[in-house]
Amino acid sequence: MVSPSVGYAASAMGHLAVHGDGPIRVDALARAVGAPPAYLAKLVHILSKKGLLDTAKGKGGGVRLSADSHTLTLYDLCVALDDDILHPKCALGIAECSDERACPAHALQVAIRAEQLAFLKRTTILNVGEFNAKRSDGAATPSAATAHPAHGA
User: Fold this and answer.
1) Selecting from 3.40.1280.10, 3.40.1170.10, 1.10.150.530, 1.10.10.10, what CATH number does the domain 4-138 have?
2) Fewest C-beta atoms under 10 Å: which of 27, 28, 104, 124?
3) pLDDT surpasses 90 at 22
């Protein structure tokens, strides 16, 4: 659905949302989320330039969220990283998806795309972090949708 870049970025930022009381070194963050360290460092650089992360070098440095994890969504990450999911494609691989050039799968593809975009727009970085924390340690954490119903709709 989304690119590995968005997946790694979402996992890393979700980890920061749940465990990030202070700056976390990129190498430690990469280990925590199972991302290749050099690849994650590149993503951190891009996301810091987009204003979603703060970075500091040296002793006591690392990375932390600069965006609100309750409102930052997967869609926002897709926009920041110019993910392919934002660019409609024909389900049959013919060309860019458009109403003017509707293939036999067009109506289905439009419905699927609408659901994908709705999911990306309602799923926050905090949702991702809570899911990963629950999955990794088995501990129950409240969902952001429960804690913040206005953001879950």
Assistant:
1) 1.10.10.10
2) 104
3) no
Give the global pTM. 0.82
Assess contact for 104 and 113: CB atoms under 8 A: no
Alpha-helical regions (H) of the chain: 4-19, 26-33, 37-49, 74-80, 106-122, 125-137, 144-147, 149-152
What is the per-residue pLDDT across 53-81, written as a single tens digit (0 to 9) for each? 999 998 888 999 999 999 999 999 999 99
CA dihedral 75, 78, 80, 84 (to 10 degrees): -140
